Amino acid sequence: MNANISLPELTIPQMLQAHARDIPNEVALRQKDHGIWQPITWHDYYMRSCHFALGLQELGLCKGSHLGILSENRWEWVTSQMAANILGAISVGVYPTSPAEEVAYVLEHGDVEVIVCEDQEQTDKILESWDSLPKMKKIIVLEHKGFRSYPADKVLLFDDVVQAGAKRAEAHLSALEEGLAQQTLSDIGLMVYTSGSTGRPKGAMLSYKNMRAEGHAVLETLGVKQGERYLSYLPLCHVAEQLLTVYGAICGAYQVNFGESIRTVQQDVREVAPHLFLGVPRIWEKLQSAIHIKMVEAGGWRYALYQKMLKICEPFNLKPAHERTLGEKLKFQLAYWLFFRALQNFVGLRRAHTVMSGAAPVSPFILNFFRTIGLPFIEVYGQTETTGMVTSQTLQDIRLGTVGPGVFNAELRADEETGELLVKSDLVFAGYYKNEEATKQTIVDGWLHTGDVVRIEDGHVRIVDRLKDIMITAGGKNLSPTEIENTMKASPYIKECIVIGEKRKFVSALIQIDPETVGQWAESQQIPYTNFKNLAENPAVRELVENEIKTQNEKMATVAHIRKFHLLTKELDHDDGEVTATMKIKRASITQKYETEIEALYA
């Protein structure tokens, strides 16, 4: 943790301009292209953003306009965002995995006038909905391939717009910078759409005051320093990646790396060797499963010794290194050189001083495991409406099962009646775009109502569940489905678990197997299968899952035990309306879809 952090009273694009002046030749961004990492300095970052801003200005974008971005993570994403912000415009990110209908909703609701698209696939989504987007003027495309036959009055190439802006720079750059100098912290710079797990996504407006406060929290709480490395790979339209890739990085002047593709993340992590890393629980579950399988395959005495080392080191894994006894330090060093160092290299995080899990609750088992093998693993909690993280564990004081105390100037309290977490802070967003009613319901007397039920213990926040998800059984017992689901997902063979229990005599669940780990298990047992459905329907797989559920049940109170379950024969899918773009479960949609299977469990 860095104490006494002081950030200038500047907006995010003003800070970018300051870095271009003060540290022009330091590397701000790196993009992997055909196997080579291409650097972009702070000066280049700023000038590319200015040139694109001048190109956008020629297309009619101005202060208060909305620029959409529909792409995987790459340097053009962040320069497009900064270009919009330098103009005084607002950027609106769209998930590249979203179907055309969802894309059209965000662009129409968000009043997007110009959109930056990665490629032909994303451009086709816009053209398909063009007639329902009255404010849309132009599509700007990053990849050149396949656009010869596209309408020139609608589709432009990114490079052409940048070049047009560069030609205007001599005459218009000073006026652009005069406008930049007039910006204030109360200006809105970013609109992030919520995941929409319970309805239509809402556009959360984030001001530069919000972003600056969150940048302050990143530097103070996570201890990241100028020039350190970060790998950007989670969707940039999600507030967590926005925080660490854009406004947190500009506040902290650290280096952001973009890999070649989402499919190369593990190799990219090894090459970048980041000092700071964020993973959602599913990423950590997959990494833990990969390590588990790797060690099982090592077999014999190696696996037995590895298990012994885990058992020896687990009791002191939450202690900071300087607080460990000499005996504990020696035990860890032995385990480190025998196994843990190689495992840290295997996941690419040996040089990291902070690795985080966020965006959804992570099971204590996962946190415990990575802490035991020596990774500086913490859990953070936040929302779109808090501009990113609002609480964070610290390496000096980890309380298992909590998400730590508030960050920066966050004032936290639990509602006396409902237990809902309330937040008052500069981190609290400016409101929902074109939805004053929802804003008034969410921010009451300056307090943000998060919708999460919590217990606050010595300042540390323990998340119980979403207020709307708390279940009451037929016997009158309150249950947290998320807690039960996370306990089940600690099994390497269970990818998703949807708990049923509201007004029921006992708890049941819909279970989705992990095709990778269950597939490897099936091969080791010489069980043939052809596809996911075939694998999930195998009686031996059902028995495997049943045994896993029994094991995980023992970790919970009897009332929370899963008595019956139904194995899903297809993977939950965003296109089918079962999960959001961030893979959050749409509980109501799934329970409605599988109503027959659920009722059969209680027949």
TrEMBL record:
Q: Which UniProt keywords apply?
A: Fatty acid metabolism, Ligase, Lipid metabolism
InterPro entries, per database record: AMP-bd_C_sf, AMP-binding_CS, AMP-dep_synth/lig_dom, ANL_N_sf
User: Is Cell membrane found in the keyword set?
Assistant: no
* GO CC aspect terms: membrane
Which transformation does this protein catalyse, written as a reaction?
A: a long-chain fatty acid + ATP + CoA = a long-chain fatty acyl-CoA + AMP + diphosphate
AMP-dependent synthetase/ligase domain location is 17-433
**MF terms per GO, please?**
long-chain fatty acid-CoA ligase activity
A Pfam family for this UniProt protein? AMP-binding_C_3
Entry's PANTHER family? AMP-DEPENDENT SYNTHETASE_LIGASE DOMAIN-CONTAINING PROTEIN (PTHR43272:SF32), LONG-CHAIN-FATTY-ACID--COA LIGASE (PTHR43272)
Recorded protein name is Long-chain-fatty-acid--CoA ligase
Organism, as annotated: Terasakiella brassicae
